[in-house]
Amino acid sequence: MTDALARFVGKLRKAPQLTPLGTIYSYNNSAFNLAAHVVATIAGVPYERAVKDLILEPLGMRRTHYRTEDVIAGRIAVGHRDGRPQGWRRPRAHNGAGGVLSCVADLLRYAQFHLGDGSPLMRRANLREMHSPSRPAGSLCDWVGLVWMIDRYSGLQVVHHGGTTNGYMADLRLVPERKLAWVMLTNSDHDHQLDRVIMTELLGTDEDLIPYAPDEPSLYAGHYEAVLADLDVTVAADHLRLDVATPRRAMWNRAEDPGPPRSTRLAFRDLDRVVGLDLPFRGHRGEFLRGDDGTVEWFRWDGRIARRSPPEDGRQNRPFPSR
Fold this sequence. Notes:
Elements (H helix, E strand, L loop, with lengths): L3 H8 L17 H15 L3 H10 L23 E2 L2 E2 L9 H4 L5 H11 L9 H7 L4 E5 L1 E4 L4 E5 L2 E10 L2 E8 L4 E7 L6 H11 L18 E4 L4 E7 L2 E7 L16 E9 L2 E4 L8 E6 L5 E6 L2 E5 L15
Antiparallel strand pairs: 1-2, 3-4, 4-5, 5-6, 6-7, 7-8, 9-10, 9-16, 10-11, 11-12, 12-13, 13-14, 14-15, 15-16
Helix pairs in contact: 1-2, 2-3
């Protein structure tokens, strides 16, 4: 449907605004689709055509497409999740967030463009602005720039973005200081563990984080709820435990049963900031976010914020001082 994106954006007026604009970063696919609709409206052509005309053709990315019929007859791998093949679902309304179909060679062409001077698409200053920190992110990355995620790893700035859909995972990373880039494409979900293996091989081991011990870990415990996940944080011995469950509301296929919850111990790496210790979440970072009164209101995990539910006993969450 040629109006799929516009119809999707039209429905966003019913979506709640979780936090005031510009206050808290949370990864949001709907925002990418909204931006795609703006591009299509200004260009006066469908979003996919605008991307082809403005980016793909000038950069010579001839094996990058949006339409299933352009790739389905080629050499493609079937996506898998938990060892099971996944159906080929291609909702056009989400092409702005993750609909592009590409390959290693074309993505390296895109990386080469970003490591260059902006030619032939933009000025060097605008290109560098995309790679500059705009807001702290606290999960998935340290900061977010213009679309790009930004980390400081082993003394180097790493600019990256990736995604997961239909049993596929993609990851594109740039290290501008070394003129280095790499692409990882898999047809199974590895919970970003392979990303870390490649980072270590190419850049070495990151500096060890100094452990942080909060005075009252129980102040972080509770149930946190987002559209795509239910998160339960509990205190166990000398650490926090996180249980991650996928609610039925997050399922694309209503007939499909959500998988069982997955768990990890959490270690503090700073005030309000934690890291997963156990597979499949080893190395995943999270951050607790507090309101003006000092109480924990949100838990940012997998890049997205989840709202803390009121305690079951009816008591208010107690504030605690910042460091």
